[in-house]
Request: fold
Amino acid sequence: MEKTVVLLGDSIRLGYCERVKACLEGFNVYYPEENCRNTQYLLTQLSGYAAALDPKTVVSVLFNCGHWDAAHFGGSSESLTSEEEYRRNLGILVHRLRALFPKASLFFATTTPMNPKVCKDQNPRTNEEIDRYNTVAREVMKREGVEVLDLNAFTRAFSEESFADGCHFTKEASRLLGDRVAAFLKQRL
Reply:
């Protein structure tokens, strides 16, 4: 029987999903072509993504959201999603993922940091805010029994040159992220 690994998440995930697919030979690696944005967006689109899959074949789901949730859009002094809303949404996501893919192991990837030299992008957020959102996510995942892949810690050591802009990584840095994600998943498959 075919075994499917599902990758869901924001534009950071878009940067590494092809590499993960290349590294996980023998598995069907599914991911939406679009940016899954924030927790609310992922919640509203999840049934559509799941409809493209046979739930009996899904053995693993790695998901992340955080950059959009923590970001300040349109000059707002507040993040798009408050930390309390983020906590609630992540809990709902875990429950929905378990309902849609009952045989799958769930994993959550922490939100990666902003470029330490260029944190003033179009929708700014600070690394301190990202750390707070990652703390919320770790609390939820611990409560729900979901293992966490700490991509934030992995990428903290990346240099300024590893960033394509204030938030996104270069092709080479994204390849390194893909290698890390694939290695993490391989150990658990």
User: Anything to note?
Assistant: The two ends are 14 Å apart (CA to CA).
